[in-house]
Amino acid sequence: MKKNTLYVGLDTDRKHIDVAVAEELPGGEVRYWGRLANTPAAVDRMAKKLGQGDRELVVCYEAGPCGYGLYRQLAGKRRTKCLVVAPSMTPRRPGERVKTNRRDALKLAKLLRAQELSEVWVPDAAHEAVRDVVRARSTAVSALTRCRQHISSFLLRQGIHYVGKPWTNKHRMWLGTLSFEHVAHQLLFGELLLALDQAQARRERLTDHIRELLAGWSLAWLVAALQALRGYDLINAAIMVAELGDPRRFTSPRQLMGFVGLNVSEASSGDTVRRGHLTKTGNTRARKALIEAAWTYSRPPAMPKRLAARLPAAVQKIADKARHRLSRRYRHLLMRGKLKQVAIAAVARESLGFIRAIAHAAAPAGSRPR
Q1: Quick one: 130 and 261 in the same domain?
Q2: Using CA atoms, how far apart are residues 346 and 330, in angstroms rounded to an integer?
Q3: Strand order in 56-62's β-sheet?
């Protein structure tokens, strides 16, 4: 960092922001600056006071429910750099038992000066808006699943069973014909069916919204390219792109694996090497979509998708290689005695390399990763 730099740690909540500052080393003082209201006007006044005398400000706060509004406000100021840091990667002392906003702000300022914090990727406002819609659809899918579970549990208690494939149109018509001896049960079942229909309608509306939004999204080209891979339709591809952003921003596939928590944990010491389970410390939504797509490779390689014929030849070649290599990888791991779940996780991990390669092959000329 340049000289005359002030490091600022912010501990934010809905109403207030606690501010601590750290002077440059060597001998730089760390002090609590004060508390201010969590409003744009108060933040502007703070930045103006701390930046007096042509000081450069390096500001950080932990990612949380307050979003990225504070980041965008501070990052747009002259001589100010703002970082949003990962709370799970903030160092903590094992014996630390007292936690207050003041202490957290002081700790952030000191760790920021020591460059001990891990910065998270902040999407632009347009990308964040699309991601919110994609995540809302995932929430709607979870709600629909819960409605189905409630209905299945209720019918199981009543000893009623359906012969055939559940949750089809035929099954829904059958549900509408059921009647119960007790009025209370009949009223309850009507409410369960109403919740089911509402959840299903909400999922379909959000799916339509995603299709509409993709036309004007800057990463629509990547959503289309990923659909060349097995296991990726419009929605699954949109989930991956919304959560990962442009995979070209990662310097290597291994870094991308770490982002979704598919790196292997390790606790080695000296000549002893101990590797354990997957870390699972990254983006949960992206990891779930990867695992769901990886199950398609448990079946023999299928013919290339019709959609792939409209994509660049380089993308088709990568997708074709993935189609054979990942299926072969799954069979090889099963032959070695690995569990199916372990083999699928390995396939999902390796598929990230193909996703990154497709992003490089399909990127429009002159575009840069953000």
Answers
A1: no
A2: 8
A3: 30-37, 16-22, 5-12, 56-62, 80-85
> Which of 87, 113, 139 is where one domain is finished?
113
Q: What is the pLDDT of residues 211-256, one digit of tens each?
A: 999 989 999 999 999 999 999 999 999 999 999 999 999 999 999 9
Is the same domain home to 348 and 230?
yes
Output the pTM of the full model.
0.90
Counting the structural domains of the chain, the total is 3
Judge whether 153 and 147 are in contact, CB under 8 Å. Answer: no
What is the DSSP annotation of 311-356?
S-HHHHHHHHHHHHHHHHHHHHHHHTT--HHHHHHHHHHHHHHHHH
Q: Which of 361, 326, 344, 127 is nearest to 224 (CA)?
A: 361
- Tokens 């979704």, residue located: 260
Output DSSP code: residue 303: P
**E strand or H helix that includes residue 137:** helix 125-157
Instruction: Look at residues 99, 117, 114, 5 and name the one whose alpha carbon lies nearest to residue 61.
Output: 117
